[in-house]
Amino acid sequence: MIRQIHRWTGIVFSIAAIVNIVAVIMGSNAMWLGLVAVIPLLVLLPTGLYMFARPYLARNA
């Protein structure tokens, strides 16, 4: 379940980053548009850290 959330959030982040890059190229200086890509990163960080640490935590248990 965590892996699936991480994958879909990664897709959302990729789309948000592409939209942000296109907006910068077109000259739009909307601050909120840059922050749209940060929201998926806040989900990607804990899910990615969990998936990274899970095998190490399982060995010590």
List keywords for this structure.
mainly alpha; 61 residues; 3 helices
- Using the CA coordinates, give the radius of gyration: 15 Å
Stretches where pLDDT falls below 50 for ≥5 residues? none
Number of separate strands: 0
| Major beta sheet summary | none
Structural class by SSE content: mainly alpha
In one word, what is the shape? elongated
Helix content: over 70%
Order of helices and strands: HHH
- Helical segment count: 3
Proportion of residues in extended strands: under 5%
At a glance:
The protein has three helices and no strands.
Can you describe what's shown?
The structure is a single chain. With 61 residues, the protein is mainly alpha-helical. Helices cover 89% and strands 0% of the residues. It has one domain (1-60). It is built from three helices and no strands.
Task: Tell me the layout of helices and strands.
Layout: H1 2-26, H2 31-36, H3 38-60
Helix pairs in contact: 1-3
